[in-house]
Amino acid sequence: MPILRVALPVPLRQHFDYQMETDENISVSIGSRVLVPFGKRQLVGVVWQIDPSDSFTDAVLKPITQLLDPVPVLGPMLRDLLSFAADYYHHPLGDVLTSALPALLREGRLLNNEKQKLLQLTAEGQSCSDILFKRSAKQLALWLQLKQTAFTETVAVSEFSRATMQQLIDKGIAELISQPFTPFEYLPEKQKPLPLNPAQALSVTAVVQALGRFERFLLEGVTGSGKTEVYLQAIQPVLAKGQQVLVLVPEIGLTPQTLARFEKRFAVPMLTWHSNMTDHERLRCWQRSQSGDAAIVIGTRSALFLPFRNLGLLIIDEEHDQSLKQQDGFRYHARDLAVKRASLEQCPILLGSATPSLESLYNVQQQKFIHLQLPERATSQQVPKIELLDLKQQVLKNGLADGTLAQIRQTLKRGQQVMLFLNRRGFAPALICHECGWLTECLHCSAFTTYHKQSRQLICHHCAATRPVPHQCGNCGSTQLAPVGQGTEQLEEQLGRLIPEFPITRLDRDSTRRKGSLEAHLETIHSGTPQLIIGTQMLAKGHHFPAVSLVVVVDVDGALYSSDFRASEQLAQLLTQVSGRAGRGDVAGKVLLQTHYPGHPLLQDVIQNGYHSFARSALLERQQTRLPPYQYMAMFRAEALDSAVCEQWLALLQQHTALLAQQAPLQWLGPVKAPLEKKAGKFRWQLQLFSPDRKALHQLLAALMQLIQSSALSRKVKWQLDVDPLDL
Ligand code: ADP
Ligand code: ZN
Ligand code: ZN
């Protein structure tokens, strides 16, 4: 009787052994799911080893309840990837599996009932004459198509209509048959590729020459330089070879134009993968990837774990984007795991960005990544001019200088659009008492609560606690409460009063919460009518707004002096990305930055020399200060109702680190209070660990994990380990 070592979705760092009753007369494979008893429950797990050499043969093992997959759901490549991820992030494999498998598979859904419906002609349909369709051009067209090839129900419905399809079925001319998904068939592109400029051509050639082996590319191209065209033309030969392509993007809802360009170009099955899918849609996408039917998948972070049958190319667009890193639970970075996946699949990976992460630029310096550059915009459009507007000694009207307002008015009057960028949603970051200076604070966090005027609420943006706006000061009882600072909601209200002649569209998390509202807002903007567009971070991501010719960054000062060593990188990325939104149509664009520090070296560097130059000096600085990417970093976070317990627990880890540091190159910082000291009623502390030697750091982490498991104090805190942390 074989012994099965099973990975289970439990937060324990071990596998569990079960027995397989051989008389079931079916063979079991590694990577198949099994249903097993676990305590009083039944759990779905994945067979990770069969007859492991270190199993106790004389132990009495429980038998599995049921074998769920005759064919493994996880092939060897994905299992390697997941094992690697579990080791690298020191995270329980069972939990890693949970991230990688669609919910329905985790729940034990059997796979064989997932089929595609194929529309094909019946025998009668093959031999009938076109006289039958004399009165319906649509039916004739569908019939002629079907005479050449059968195609899926989805295609039939989208290219013709459900009614037309049904009419042919009712006449007995066509029929729907169920078929398992099969590898896609390559069809030539529907739309001609653009003639490439020399820089684009070099990039495409480099990637295409690397097909079939593992190679890493960083495509650094200013916004509008034609990166997407490079992706499209690098993809085409992969499809022609019958191989699949995965394109990872930070957020899908925000880039409908990019999707549309892919759809217009290629005639092969293309799927998207994102957080707004139903469980069933996810399972289907998973299966179509596994069967080879999905030629291109464009998806967010977790699409990385789709089981491609034959992956030929991996692309990550906006590779610098922070949302590629999962920020809770299994805290993986999709870019880093994607590189690992490409090495397992033996295929090239192409990372693209106008503002590459310092990590990737460092990898270029280390000659791990091949640098491809698109230094100019692909069309004759000018790169927008960036102007600094000194706010010192200016009278501000609602946060805007007179000069800014004048330029906004002029631009609108010329019939163009203006975009205002303010990275704070709500009406105001807090309410202040005019008499005593008391500020509205969250009751559960060490943070102020944002005043939302439209919903008449104070909302904490850290723990989401919501309460009605108070009438009186909590300290002195005065009723003189006034908003301090400015959020997007306030800017909208004030500009509505100052410039009533033009409509305003606001894009932030509040204004796009309702389903469909983002699309509606984007549509208004794309209509091209002169208007003000006000928004947060959301605006910076990948949009193509041709009618915008002026971008105003209302407030950059907050980010200039931050304690987070990544803040300058992020600000430089944001400014460059936001300015890339200006002048993408026929008119030249301009960007206005309002600041009290026009002489700040970061601003000067980004504006005068561009992001790439900034990045070089930023890398130098990281080298001098011995920070990532020049050192490897990991961080333990602890939270508890009792602040002292957090500190004690982290001190335990720190002492052990100090001990090991006698033999290995290890440094640490902490334990210190987290920047947000208290969140949702719990106190938060952290311990940062550094080493120039990746192996030394990982040995330390492994040792600390053992210590944590054996320490009783560990049960008194909620803790997590973050390897290569991004938010500090
Ligand atoms: P990016 O992805 O780098 O921001 P895009 O791929 O969106 O840039 O290209 C910007 C614009 O330039 C698009 O309108 C695109 O159609 C156009 N474009 C790209 N490559 C070429 C080319 N080789 N010739 C002409 N136009 C191009
Ligand atoms: Zn709070
Ligand atoms: Zn007061």
TrEMBL record:
Positions annotated to bind Zn(2+) 2: 442, 445, 460, 463
Helicase ATP-binding domain: from which residue to which, for each copy?
208-374
Q: Which reaction is the catalytic activity of this chain?
A: ATP + H2O = ADP + phosphate + H(+); Couples ATP hydrolysis with the unwinding of duplex DNA by translocating in the 3'-5' direction
Which GO cellular component terms, listed alphabetically, does the Swiss-Prot or TrEMBL entry include? primosome complex
Q: Where are the transmembrane segments?
A: none
List GO molecular-function terms, semicolon-separated: 3'-5' DNA helicase activity; ATP binding; ATP hydrolysis activity; DNA binding; zinc ion binding
What GO terms describe the biological role, i.e. biological process, of this protein?
A: DNA recombination; DNA replication initiation; DNA replication, synthesis of primer; double-strand break repair
Listed A to Z, the keywords are: ATP-binding, DNA replication, DNA-binding, Helicase, Hydrolase, Isomerase, Metal-binding, Nucleotide-binding, Primosome, Zinc
Q: Which cofactor does it need?
A: Zn(2+)
Q: What is its EC number?
A: 5.6.2.4
Which principal EC class is assigned to this enzyme? isomerase
Q: How is the cofactor bound?
A: Binds 2 zinc ions per subunit.
NCBIfam families found in the cross-reference section: priA, PRK05580.1-1, PRK05580.1-4
Q: What does this protein do?
A: Initiates the restart of stalled replication forks, which reloads the replicative helicase on sites other than the origin of replication. Recognizes and binds to abandoned replication forks and remodels them to uncover a helicase loading site. Promotes assembly of the primosome at these replication forks.
What is the primary gene name for this protein?
A: priA
Which positions are annotated as binding Zn(2+) 1?
A: 433, 436, 473, 476
Q: What is this protein called?
A: Replication restart protein PriA
Its subunit composition reads: Component of the replication restart primosome.
Family in the record: Belongs to the helicase family. PriA subfamily.
